[in-house]
Write a structure and sequence with these properties.
Blueprint lengths: L18 H11 L5 H9 L5 H5 L21 H4 L8 E6 L3 H13 L2 H18 L7 E4 L4 H7 L3 H13 L7 E3 L11 H8 L4 E3 L12 E9 L4 H14 L3 E9 L1
Parallel strand pairs: 1-6, 2-5, 5-6
Antiparallel strand pairs: 3-4
Helix pairs in contact: 1-2, 6-8
């Protein structure tokens, strides 16, 4: 994968031509005081101006809990009786372009794509969570069988890059103990929720805590679909690290 081509269309990257697209997107994503930081991050995306203008960024009103575009509290979150996630935030809508690009990254581990997706997560962090003092970053783990098939956990690669950018340590808190069917093979939200029951166990690594004994964990994944996976992870963390914690999730796609 050449370094001078756009990841969106394969065309040549012309920094001068994409300047207006960078300024426009950075201005939509950040306040005036944070614009310089956001501009630098957006300018570093390996996209041409046309593809950057077509990036499916979630900019409108969204659910305060899960980040779904629309009302302040979506119907799914309204019906949850025991919420384990403080909130979820996602940067992009999941479309066919995103699906193809993410699939390439998952199964080929392209270095340019790792840098691209990590930068998207960094942009999402500065947009939504910059004011929160996180004690550590952790990821949704793969089951050992799936990890052996794929060779790596793509979210772990992104976590390491995000940690380097933000100065927040990464901790491997969870182990996937239950092999579940792919989302496309499960019949609806209820089946997904049931399949994630008991899917994770504690890895034994200590969660850093502040002087009061509370803690904040940033939980990473690539896609938020029903939220069942992330909530199952959060439930396991709270059960083992103690109830005085707050788990926030961050994903690239929604």
């Amino acid at each position: 994968m050449r370094n001078d081509t756009c990841l969106g269309c394969g065309g040549h990257l012309n920094e001068r031509v994409k300047e207006s697209a960078v300024r426009s997107l950075a201005g939509q994503l950040a306040s005036r005081t944070r614009y310089p930081v956001m501009y630098r991050l957006v300018a570093g995306l390996a996209l041409c101006g046309i593809c950057m203008n077509q990036l499916p960024v979630m900019l409108g009103p969204s659910c305060l809990q899960c980040g779904r575009e629309g009302s302040q509290l979506c119907s799914d979150c309204h019906n949850i009786t025991a919420e384990t996630l403080q909130s979820n935030r996602s940067l992009l809508r999941y479309n066919e372009w995103g699906k193809n690009l993410l699939s390439t990254f998952k199964y080929r581990g392209e270095e340019r794509l790792a840098a691209f997706f990590a930068k998207l997560l960094t942009i999402a962090f500065y947009r939504y969570y910059e004011g929160i003092a996180f004690d550590c970053i952790t990821t949704v783990p793969l089951h050992a069988q799936r990890l052996q098939e794929r060779g790596f956990n793509q979210v772990d690669l992104l976590a390491k890059r995000l940690s380097a950018d933000l100065g927040i340590p990464v901790r491997s808190l969870l182990v996937r103990t239950k092999m579940t069917a792919k989302l496309s093979q499960q019949a609806g939200r209820t089946a997904r929720v049931e399949s994630m029951e008991g899917a994770f166990s504690w890895a034994g690594e200590r969660v850093p805590k502040n002087m009061s004994g509370s803690y904040r964990v940033l939980l990473l994944d690539d896609i938020y679909t029903t939220g069942s996976t992330l909530r199952s992870c959060a439930k396991t963390i709270l059960a083992h690290a103690g109830p005085h914690g707050s788990i926030y999730s961050l994903t690239i796609y929604r």
